[in-house]
């Protein structure tokens, strides 16, 4: 296979930034800390800018018997050549204790260069695209999360299409809140229509004991809707708790026996009058972990269709749709005109996908 040309530095020593994709994995030591720290280290290297990252996924190991892996992917903007970037990845592995003993053996950190723009490269030391990426669910699942429309240059297929052709049953998102305390005494103080409030006594993982109050919430689903001309659809909603109207992305509480995606597909039609044909999971996050276990599941909603007869809003809602440009939303956040935390967080998650 012949290699294509690589973007090289100009006469000033600089180069046009190129987008590339890397895979990260670990199954020895404190894998979560290692992976998070390795991204921080890479982002500090001159010529590398971290653009997007996936969630971490638990995956079954391939090869000799060994612990399960944490895997993920990241998108980088680089001004380095592929060999120079590969050397940075190898040195980062060594920094975090990588020792190469047996093929496919356990490791503290594994960094693979998957894609480098639309380059096809075949040398004794480096192949791009990565020669086995199209076979690996633990690569394609997180990569499809952050770059579903990237065309793999050899097959000519998008990542979202490639992931459909592999078995993803042994790849699952690392759950939030995976270190539960020991419950010593629990008493429910209030059960409301959408959430419960409780005060309980716990023994923490560090063996300390105490009483904590918590709002137990079933979680919420949120959409960042994008019209075909690039505008974002928000809603101006009256919020009783703050005694005023807030600009927010459409969202709703996940109902019993309903998935977050089912929730937000319903809510976006009720609150905005639009139906989305294309959905992409952005991620999930806690809203106020100091006193609540509520998780927001965020989605990017595209290819919008304005409904002629949208569903009726709930009787207790006071909502008005608002269309804004990406730049206007960004400015409103900086000026404090958008002060809803879940909207700000989701906008940050969606920003790499918004042109």
Question: Quick gist of this model?
Answer:
The protein is α+β, with helices and mostly antiparallel strands. The protein has helices at residues 31-43, 82-95, 137-146, 159-162, 260-272, 326-335, 341-350, and strands spanning 18-26, 48-53, 57-59, 69-78, 110-116, 121-122, 127-128, 151-152, 157-158, 171-173, 182-191, 196-203, 209-216, 220-225, 232-239, 244-248, 251-253, 274-286, 295-306, 319-324.
Helix/strand layout:
Layout lengths: L17 E9 L4 H13 L4 E6 L3 E3 L9 E10 L3 H14 L14 E7 L4 E2 L4 E2 L8 H10 L4 E2 L4 E2 H4 L8 E3 L8 E10 L4 E8 L5 E8 L3 E6 L6 E8 L4 E5 L2 E3 L6 H13 L1 E13 L8 E12 L12 E6 L1 H10 L5 H10 L5
Parallel strand pairs: 14-19
Antiparallel strand pairs: 1-4, 1-5, 2-4, 3-4, 3-10, 6-7, 8-9, 11-12, 12-13, 14-17, 15-16, 15-20, 18-19
Polypeptide structure, described:
- There is one protein chain.
- The chain has 355 residues and is of the alpha+beta class.
- The chain is built from seven helices and 20 strands.
- The strands form six sheets. Strands 1, 2, 3, 4, 5 and 10 form a six-stranded antiparallel sheet that branches. It has a four-stranded mixed sheet with strand order 17-14-19-18, sandwiched between helices. It has a three-stranded antiparallel sheet with strand order 11-12-13, with no helix packed on it.
- Strand 18 (274-286) and strand 19 form a beta hairpin.
Observed structural traits:
alpha+beta; 355 residues; four-stranded mixed β-sheet; disordered N terminus
The termini sit apart by 34 Å
Question: Overall 3D geometry?
Answer: globular
Sheet with the most strands? 6 strands, antiparallel
The helix-and-strand class reads alpha+beta
Measured on Cα atoms, how large is the radius of gyration? 23 Å
Please work out how many helical segments DSSP would assign.
7
Work out the strand percent. 35-45%
The poorly predicted ranges are 1-14
Mean pLDDT: 87
What's the total count of β strands?
Answer: 20
Order of SSEs? EHEEEHEEEHEEHEEEEEEEEHEEEHH
Helix content: 10-25%
């Amino acid at each position: 296979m012949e290699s294509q040309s690589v973007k090289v530095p100009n006469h000033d020593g600089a180069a046009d930034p190129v987008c590339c994709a890397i895979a990260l994995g670990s199954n020895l030591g404190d894998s979560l800390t290692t992976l998070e720290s390795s991204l921080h280290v890479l982002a500090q290297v001159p010529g590398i800018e971290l653009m997007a990252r996936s969630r971490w996924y638990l995956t079954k190991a391939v090869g000799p018997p060994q612990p399960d892996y944490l895997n993920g992917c990241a998108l980088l903007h680089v001004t380095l050549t592929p060999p120079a970037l590969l050397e940075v990845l190898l040195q980062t592995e060594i920094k975090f204790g990588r020792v190469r003993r047996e093929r496919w053996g356990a490791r503290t950190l594994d960094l693979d260069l998957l894609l480098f723009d639309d380059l096809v490269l075949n040398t004794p030391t480096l192949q791009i695209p990565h020669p086995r990426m199209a076979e690996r669910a633990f690569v394609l699942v997180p990569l499809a999360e952050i770059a579903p429309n990237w065309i793999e240059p050899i097959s000519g297929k998008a990542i979202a299409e490639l992931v459909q052709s592999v078995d993803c049953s042994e790849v699952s998102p690392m759950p939030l809140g995976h270190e539960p305390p020991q419950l010593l005494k629990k008493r429910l103080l209030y059960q409301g229509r959408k959430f419960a409030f409780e005060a309980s006594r716990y023994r923490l993982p560090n063996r300390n004991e105490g009483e904590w109050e918590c709002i137990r919430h079933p979680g919420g689903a949120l959409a960042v809707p994008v019209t075909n001309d690039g505008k974002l659809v928000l809603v101006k909603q009256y919020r009783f708790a703050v005694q005023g109207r807030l600009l927010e992305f459409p969202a709703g509480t996940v109902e019993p026996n309903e998935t977050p995606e089912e929730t937000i597909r319903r809510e976006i039609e009720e609150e905005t009058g639009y139906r989305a044909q294309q959905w992409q999971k952005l991620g999930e996050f806690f809203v106020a972990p100091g006193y609540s276990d509520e998780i927001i599941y965020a989605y990017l909603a595209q290819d919008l269709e304005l409904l002629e007869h949208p569903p009726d809003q709930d009787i207790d809602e006071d909502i008005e749709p608002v269309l804004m440009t990406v730049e206007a939303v960004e400015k409103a956040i900086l000026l404090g005109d958008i002060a809803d935390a879940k909207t700000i967080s989701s906008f940050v998650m969606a920003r790499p996908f918004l042109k």
